[in-house]
Design goal:
The complex is a heterodimer. Chain A is an all-alpha fold. Chain A has 13 helices and no strands. Chain B is mostly helical. Chain B starts with a helix and ends with a helix. At the A-B interface, α1, α3, α4, α5 and α10 of A face α1, α3, α4, α5 and α7 of B.
């Protein structure tokens, strides 16, 4: 009896701890939302940090008009879709080759590709900048995306998924005279779909959020993504410590991604859990 | 017959063709830059000084300069403090969060969301928000600390003693939820009968964690340690927003220093040598970790 009671008490304690820590972790986001909805002339003085008298959307309109966020948006969306589109193709065919075929040098080539996971692209920003300049790509969206067109992480992940496909199914397909792309399309890909989605989502999030590399290889509005745009915005002289504008701009950058995430979150977390990222 | 040989010939080359695009991009943006940084690290070249514009071979000169550079010593110390201060704590928190949310309780999904949402945020946005918390005077952080009886408002990002700590706090807040996901995945794949047996044997909660959960999640921990370590080296976005490496280098870490050397001081030779050092550190760590992980598998 006392044992049962102890377990109940433990559960209750854990519940309170979970609740408290969740709220603590969410504080910055709550605060951002509230601050962004407060009138700009309502000072964020002490004791008045959380609640003003009125709420307004005016900060969003002002922030939007003070920097070319529309263009930044377009750039980020094009960038993310471009990278994802190319990656889905390169990753799928490479993973297929590494799963389905035996060929000389297979192991060495696989290890070679995995090097990309050990030496992150950020560490190579100095020499990669030279390459981009030499290719004449400086200040283009392609410059931001091209180093990521091949993905060791994606190849690795998808190969894990392909290895789970029952051998019998593949053999049956081969006997039926399927060509390699029919095998890939009809037999390997359908059961690997969750992994593909997990990879796709993490690719989109990663590149939507990237800052340092775009900062280095772009210098004009026509190719600048949201992240570097936001940092420029925070450094505008007239912004100063206008928190309502800063927070509104921050949410403009984060908003769409958050909405996508909320829609897909169950799928996202599930696919992480099942995708062999263990 | 002729068709048949053509086909088998094509089949022989096909796997190489399929791997080629990925391989080409890895070659161009991982292998080539590594080699090129190595090569350039033996030359003196500074783009902003006329007489040093063309590269001159100086052997190990850049490395000698780096190791005798007092700024580098400072940067190295900062980097170490940053890693020691962020990696273990965010991993522990990640494990703790995973234990908390791996229970069948109502609305637990919301708690998972609360811990995980920081992963989705761009680091620059997270840092922009935290900028407010660190503001002297009315910043939330200071207000809370003052309420707890801590001495007066502090300018967190402007103080030489607190700037590095400030960027570390942001990194921990941002990353713990990411590591939680991997632990959660690990926990959900653990065999429950083992725990039932342990429960019958009278093992308490702590003993179960220490003797069962942690050993079973060893590979997960190694994997998370690897990505946390790499991330500590490569993510410096929050430093750009919060401190710009200052005040007086108090929050400059290795990659930020490399960026300054290459893109502010235009010192190609020095930054190439720094790149080589960074790559070596990363490779030694990841390969060691990988081997430890493989070795553990054989032992079990």
């Amino acid at each position: 009896m006392s044992n049962k009671l102890r377990i109940r008490a433990g559960q209750l304690g854990a519940n309170f701890l979970t609740l408290g820590l969740s709220l603590l972790w969410l504080t910055p986001v709550f605060w951002t939302l509230i601050a962004s909805l407060r009138p700009a002339d309502d000072p964020l003085g002490r004791g008045n940090v959380w609640f003003g008298y009125t709420l307004t959307l005016a900060n969003y309109w002002r922030a939007w008009s003070m920097a070319p966020f529309g263009e930044y948006y377009l750039n980020t969306i094009s960038l993310v879709l471009m990278i994802l589109g190319v990656q889905l193709v390169t990753v799928t065919i490479a993973a297929f080759a590494f799963t389905h075929y035996q060929f000389t040098g297979k192991k060495a080539l696989f290890f070679f590709i995995l090097l990309q996971m050990m030496i992150p692209t950020s560490a190579l920003l100095a020499p990669n900048f030279s390459t981009i300049s030499k290719l004449g790509l400086f200040d283009t969206l392609l410059a931001i995306g091209i180093p990521y067109f091949g993905s060791a992480f994606g190849t690795f992940l998808l190969r894990q998924a392909f290895l789970e496909v029952p051998r019998d199914l593949v053999d049956a397909g081969t006997i039926d005279g399927c060509s390699w792309w029919q095998l890939l399309w009809h037999i390997y890909l359908p059961p690997s779909f969750p992994t593909l989605i997990a990879f796709g989502l993490s690719s989109v999030i990663w590149h939507w959020n990237e800052f340092l590399w775009p900062l280095i290889v772009t210098n004009s509005t026509s190719s600048r993504p949201l992240t570097t745009g936001l940092v420029r915005f925070t450094q505008l002289g007239e912004i100063g410590a206008q928190w309502s504008l800063l927070t509104a701009a921050t949410l403009l950058v984060v908003g769409p991604l958050f909405i996508i995430f909320l829609i897909f979150q169950r799928r996202f977390i599930q696919s992480f859990v099942h995708s062999g990222l263990k | 017959m002729e068709k048949e040989t053509a086909r088998s010939k094509r089949d022989r080359y096909l796997p190489y063709l399929l791997v080629l695009p990925t391989l080409a991009f890895v070659l161009l943006f991982t292998v080539w830059p590594t080699l090129s940084a190595f090569y350039r690290s033996f030359f003196q070249q500074r783009l902003n000084i006329a007489k040093f514009r063309t590269p001159t071979f100086i052997g190990l000169g850049n490395y000698a300069n780096i190791f005798s550079d007092p700024h580098f010593h400072r940067v190295l110390a900062n980097t170490l403090r940053y890693i020691i201060g962020t990696v273990p704590i965010s991993i522990l928190l990640g494990f703790f969060f995973a234990m908390l949310v791996n229970r069948k309780v109502r609305n637990i999904g919301l708690a998972r969301l609360a811990f995980f949402h920081t992963t989705i945020l761009p680091m620059v946005s997270a840092a922009t928000v935290w900028m407010f918390f660190f503001t002297p005077g009315y910043g939330l952080f200071n207000t809370v600390l003052a309420a707890l009886g801590y001495a007066g408002p502090q300018n967190w990002t402007g103080s030489p003693d607190l700037a590095l700590l400030a960027v570390m706090i942001v990194a921990i807040w941002k990353n713990a939820g990411y590591y939680m996901i991997f632990y959660l995945a690990g926990l959900q794949n653990l065999p429950t009968p083992l725990y039932e047996a342990a429960g019958l044997d009278g093992a308490n909660w702590w003993q179960a964690i220490w003797h069962l959960t942690l050993p079973l999640l060893r590979r997960t921990t190694l994997f998370i340690t690897t990505i946390a370590f790499i991330d500590a080296f490569r993510t410096i976005d929050h430093i750009f927003v919060l401190t710009s490496g200052g005040p007086s280098e108090a929050s400059t870490v290795l990659l930020y220093y490399l960026w300054q050397k290459r893109f502010e001081q235009l010192d190609i030779g020095f930054s190439s040598a720094l790149t080589v050092i960074l790559i070596l550190v990363l490779l030694v760590f990841t390969i060691t970790n990988f081997r430890v992980s493989e070795k553990g598998e054989e032992d079990v």
